[in-house]
Specification:
Layout: H1 12-29, E1 36-39, E2 46-48, H2 52-57, H3 73-93, E3 97-99, H4 101-108, E4 114-118, H5 122-131, E5 138-141, H6 145-152, E6 160-164, H7 173-187, E7 192-199, H8 202-215, E8 220-226, E9 238-244, H9 250-265, E10 272-278
Parallel strand pairs: 1-4, 1-6, 4-5, 6-7
Antiparallel strand pairs: 2-3, 7-9, 8-9, 8-10
Helix pairs in contact: 1-3, 1-4, 1-9, 3-4, 3-9, 7-8
The protein binds S-adenosylmethionine.
Length: 282
């Protein structure tokens, strides 16, 4: 386990992932019925952008660091809950903090909602458990997120989301994301599933999306954000999320936000996006 998210926190991929996560959480919190958010690869929840790790890559400068200037009003309206979550965490922990997915989920939890955070790295799981020990709405599990997922769904609330955000250290993890999503949605057909992926080799992502398109019995979206031309499969030229059972508003929201992000976060003048329906409605 070599991957440390502290080197990458707040980069363009985190911006897309956390923005979509917040849109889904906002949708869930719009109804009074409690929900549960399961984060299978949670990390440590808070990152210091002044720390050595973040400074060594400087990745956040081309992510959250490019969001200071306002976007057009219709984009800002959709970005607002993400900006509010980041601001709330910064108000509590410091202006140079960037929230990880557990912190973002925690901001959205109401009294009856639950957050379950799974992390395999022993030190990181300990850090997260200590951080949230006093919050009875949250639980941290030191387990393998891939296998824990099966035991955690469907949750007692029967309402909520699962974020699958692996480090992609091993070959074939993109295909594993696709097969795990298919299996999970069969076990919990009404859950909202968000599967994050890096885009280096676009053909691997296309293959995973085609398998989902053919195998899914539930609607899904593929949301890609490209910040470089995908010419070199060794470079992280884009990022994306599969969202199964997306809130009915999400596709229209993505059509507004993704082009704005592609323009703002582009490197070398190339930015692009994709918002594609998969599954029975694709
Ligand atoms: N979701 C986090 C966020 O958005 O802030 C970032 C997660 S980071 C991309 C991936 C995390 O998964 C790392 O903290 C890594 O230690 C952890 N990890 C790696 N393999 C895992 C596994 N099999 N089960 C659970 N966690 C794992």
């Amino acid at each position: 386990m070599n991957y440390r998210h502290a080197f990458h926190a707040g980069n363009f991929a985190d911006v897309l992932k956390h923005l979509v996560l917040v849109r889904v959480l906002t949708y869930l919190a719009a109804k009074p019925k409690p929900f549960r958010a399961v984060d299978t690869h949670a990390g440590i929840g808070l990152y210091d952008l002044d720390a050595d790790e973040a400074g060594r890559t400087g990745e956040w400068h081309d992510g959250i660091g490019r969001l200071d200037a306002p976007f057009a009003p219709e984009v800002e309206a959709l970005l607002a809950p993400y900006r509010e979550a980041v601001a709330a965490v910064r108000a509590r922990y410091g202006a140079r903090t960037y929230p990880g997915s557990p912190a973002i989920i925690r901001e959205a939890l109401r009294a009856g909602d639950k957050g379950v955070f799974v992390e395999l790295h022993p030190v990181d799981a300990g850090t997260l458990a200590e951080r949230y020990a006093s919050d009875s709405r949250t639980k941290v599990l030191h387990l393998d997120g891939w296998t824990a997922l099966n035991a955690l769904i469907p949750p007692p609330e029967r309402r909520g989301l699962v974020l699958i955000d692996p480090p992609y250290e091993e070959r074939g993890e993109i295909d594993r994301l696709g097969t795990s999503l298919l299996k999970a949605v069969r076990k919990w057909p009404t859950g909202i599933f968000l599967g994050w992926y890096p885009i280096k080799d676009l053909s691997a992502v296309d293959r995973m999306a085609a398998a989902l398109d053919a195998g899914l019995e539930r609607p899904a979206l593929r949301l890609d954000l490209m910040i470089e031309r995908p010419d070199d499969p060794t470079r992280l030229s884009g990022t994306g999320l599969i969202v199964i059972n997306p809130p009915w508003t999400l596709a229209a929201e993505a059509e507004i936000v993704l082009p704005a992000l592609a323009e703002r976060l582009a490197r070398g003048g190339y930015g692009a996006f994709r918002c594609e329906r998969l599954g029975p409605e694709g």
